[in-house]
Amino acid sequence: NFPPLRNEAAVHILRGRMKGIQGHCNSCYMDAALFSLFSCTSVLDSMLFKPFPLCDRNVQNILRDEIVNPLRKTGFVMARSVMHLREQLTEKGQCSSFTTAEKDPEEFLNLIMHQILGIEPLLKLQSGGQEEQDCYCYQIFMDKQEDLVVPDVQQLVEHSFLSSDLKLVEIPSCFIIQMPRFGKEYKMFSKIIPSLELDITDLLLDSPRECCLCGDVATLECS
Prior knowledge:
Strand order of the largest sheet: 4-3-6
CATH class of the largest domain: Alpha Beta
Distance between the termini: 47 Å
Number of helices: 7
CATH topology of the largest domain: Cathepsin B, Chain A
Strand content: 5-15%
CATH architecture of the largest domain: Alpha-Beta Complex
Low-confidence stretches: none
Radius of gyration: 19 Å
């Protein structure tokens, strides 16, 4: 079993032609998600090893041995390995189009994390004082902002949480964020700069924060 790639090793192994996860038959949503989750981080490696109560060990073995280990070892995963996973998801998820059609990444993550591996939700969100919502990833929804031409992830997350009146109930162990969606005809942003660190201080519910005027603990929040 191979650890995630870091620093110079990541550049050496992942850069160049025939690197990454090979696309085939509308697999781009899954290829991008798997690459993001496993190539350079171990935060979700429990998905590969831990025997969860509802865990399907066959899917877990395919994910670990045919996708993640080859990606970390050689920097390349063949399309047939992803298709093998898609075939299993089609069988387990009772959805015949998983091997042919493009899906929403959130649908893929919910299926593999919840129904197949039985992982507890990663995020707890609250909107406007309503009941908590459990989920596995957060998709950024926001209106077009004229002042955001080339935004970074920090700006997009803050704008999205503010416009939706959302708060994180607790610090998540893993924060999977889906960038704004767009089609072939329209792109909300031509580029998005990755934020190498994410400050969630202002996104946490009931988190003590400093008053921007006096420096004491704040008692009011102005959006």
